Amino acid sequence: MLKNLKMNDYNHLCYFTIPSFEEYISVTHCFTSRIGGVSDGDNTSLNLSFKTGDTAEKVRENYERVCNALNIPMENLVLSDQVHGDRIKIVSSEDRGKGILMNSDIYEIDALITNEKNVALVTLYADCVPIFILDPKRNVIALAHAGWKGTVLKIGAKVINRMKEEFSTDPKDCIVAIGPSIGNCCYEVDQIVIDEFNKYFTNLSKFVISKGDNKYMLDLWKANKLALEEIGVLARNITVSNICTQCNHDILFSHRADKGKTGRMAGILQLR
Ligand SMILES: [Zn+2]
Asked: Any idea what the Cα angle at residue 258 is, between residues 128 and 255, rounded to 5°?
């Protein structure tokens, strides 16, 4: 399958960038890999979570390396607190450092939005879907974490609706990328998950394949894309990375491939 992101190497640290975002000099962004950090064991090596049994020193060193690669100060980073919900927070320069360099009052937040420069949004992943959003007209950015629950809740669409309320974003202007995450090649789910999708989506045949025996292959990329198109995001403005974390778990953390014991990669997005 065609991979739609660009792989970059900075001092042996590997990270992905999105070509449609690289066209805008107003943003700095990346999706990290597991290559190029200092963590060991299950977190080998570029783990960016403080909650996966790693030491805070190593995680901070990993962030430092990523910030060097992106040429942004570590002080700019603001970390989400993901709980597979659909709560969204608009952050500002006052939130810089929270969750990484200092204690945070950001709780149970799966999506971050900002319209301020030098505020670097950070969300964490190991199979769940990262949704990168840029409104280049109003200069607003957002990052949303969508596992199957966030996908059911249409968190990406809710984020853009919030951008519309707060900053007059028009969905037609939005540039979106669905980053590396578990693909329909690997993501088998049972009936309980499908029942939830049936409550909120009408077109399951477009992203669910039945395998019989109450087992299904679920395409989270397509489900998220459909939810975004439903509110007016243009199909041509949505990049789907086509990079499956489980298939590529030699270079990416995968919760399923590593049977729950694994580190986390980050999606990072900043206006400059
Ligand atoms: Zn796969």
From this structure: 15
Whether the predicted model's global pTM rises above the 0.90 cut:
yes
Amino acid 3: pLDDT: 80
Residue 161 parent element (H or E): helix 155-167
Tokens of 101: 């360099």
Ligand 1: distance of its center to the CA of 100 in Å?
A: 31
Phi, psi values for residue 14, rounded to 5°: -105, 135
Q: Tens digit of pLDDT for each residue in 21-51?
A: 999 999 999 999 999 999 999 999 999 999 9
Count of positions (residues) in the chain: 272
- Please give the distance, rounded to the nearest whole angstrom, from the Cα atom of residue 253 to the centre of ligand 1: 12
d(CA 249, ligand 1 centre) in Å: 9
Helix (H, G, I), strand (E, B) or coil at 119: coil
Q: Per residue in 126-165, pLDDT tens?
A: 999 999 999 999 999 999 999 999 999 999 999 999 999 9
Which class does domain 6-181+238-271 fall in?
A: alpha beta
CA-based angle 37:41:43, to the nearest 5?
50
- What DSSP string describes 75-111? GGEEE-B--SS--EEE--GGGTTBTTTB-----SB-E
CB atoms closer than 10 angstroms to residue 269: 27
